[in-house]
Amino acid sequence: xxxxxxxxxxxxxxxxxxxxxxxxxxxxxxxxxxxxxxxxxxxxxxxxxxxxxxxxxxxxxxxxxxxxxxxxxxxxxxxxxxxxxxxxxxxxxxxxxxxxxxxxxxxxxxxxxxx
Length: 115
Hints:
Layout: H1 3-24, H2 28-58, H3 62-93
């Protein structure tokens, strides 16, 4: 097994885990993290494709690397925006879930005389 194949398999695992997390978890933060896993897998595939192109004798093309760096920065900014929106939603609604049922009530801290 050569390195590009290994990296391609790792990218497929990352995308698969991200899709699983995106489908299964109703919590928005876990969905954002799952979406970041999918993005990391796609970035890894793009890096492997760029490396294979360079290894085929095309030469050191800086465009794929520049595109990947730009994509990583855009993904980071989108994640920060998503987390900011989640915090705003939590402030407005008091809930951090996307499901329609309210779920269990949050635990109250014990009073000073109790415990």
